[in-house]
């Protein structure tokens, strides 16, 4: 079970406090979002911009952190979460205010992980297939996962993951209703692909998806999910 942006119901999301809370509540790992600054730093924040400030990629890290001390660097989060699985989501879409066609964030994530001598447990994911393809191209040893909502459907996402060498698919839990959850997980597992689904908060969904064999649930409420799984 992974805390979605930490434990956002008990602390500000994507902050060191939220990640520490997720760990203390028993999460096996956390999920986070990463963006670049103008000077190439990797900051953890969901949106490309910060309300009242502007697009993170248009400012140097010092300016962002000076205005918003609660925005951590990816390295700080990795330090806080040593021993946990950290799902690093690269936010990069042509619709984003900081769209990065050169995939510099993917390259910077790989560089950071290499500089940390492999002491982190990570999985790098993205809705933007070229981002995780870039990660694999730079370092095939870094685990990668393909994030999806409704399109492509799970079967197509699994086929893409197999073809591209990604070891995980991360479908939105809403496409895993009823018998679809077991069908998708069995198909993925047959191909050697793990399934992590988001964002699962309802206890009934927690129990149903766990019973279907989903490998990890990403949730806003790690403590309550553990109660539901007990």
Question: Your description of this structure?
Answer:
- With 230 residues, the chain is an alpha/beta fold.
- The chain has a single domain, classed as Phosphatidylinositol (PI) phosphodiesterase (TIM Barrel), CATH 3.20.20.
- It has helices spanning 16-24, 61-67, 74-80, 104-115, 129-138, 154-164, 180-190, 203-211, 222-229; strands at 2-4, 29-36, 42-44, 49-50, 54-55, 85-90, 121-126, 144-148, 168-171, 194-197, 216-219.
- Strands 1-2-6-7-8-9-10-11 form an 8-stranded parallel β-barrel, surrounded by 6 helices. It has a two-stranded antiparallel sheet with strand order 4-5.
- Helix 1 (16-24) links the parallel strand 1 and strand 2 (29-36).
- Helix 4 (104-115) packs parallel to helix 5 and helix 8 (203-211) packs across helix 9.
């Amino acid at each position: 079970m992974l805390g979605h942006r930490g434990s956002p119901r008990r602390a500000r999301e994507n902050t060191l406090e939220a990640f520490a809370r997720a760990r203390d509540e028993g999460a096996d790992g956390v999920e986070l979002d990463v963006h670049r600054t103008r000077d190439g730093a990797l900051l953890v924040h969901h949106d490309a911009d910060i309300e009242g400030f502007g697009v993170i990629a248009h400012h140097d890290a010092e300016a962002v952190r000076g205005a918003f001390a609660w925005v951590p660097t990816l390295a700080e989060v990795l330090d806080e979460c040593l021993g946990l699985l950290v799902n690093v989501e690269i936010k990069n879409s042509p619709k984003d205010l900081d769209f990065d066609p050169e995939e510099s964030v993917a390259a910077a994530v790989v560089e950071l992980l290499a500089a940390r001598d492999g002491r982190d447990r990570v999985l790098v994911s993205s809705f933007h297939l070229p981002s995780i393809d870039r990660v694999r191209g730079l370092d095939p040893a870094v685990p990668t996962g393909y994030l999806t909502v409704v399109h492509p459907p799970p079967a197509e996402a699994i086929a893409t993951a197999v073809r591209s060498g990604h070891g995980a698919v991360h479908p939105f839990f809403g496409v895993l209703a009823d018998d679809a959850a077991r069908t998708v997980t069995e198909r993925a597992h047959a191909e050697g692909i793990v399934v992590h689904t988001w964002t699962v908060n309802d206890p009934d969904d927690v129990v149903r998806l766990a019973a279907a064999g989903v490998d990890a649930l990403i949730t806003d409420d790690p403590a309550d999910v553990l109660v539901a799984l007990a």
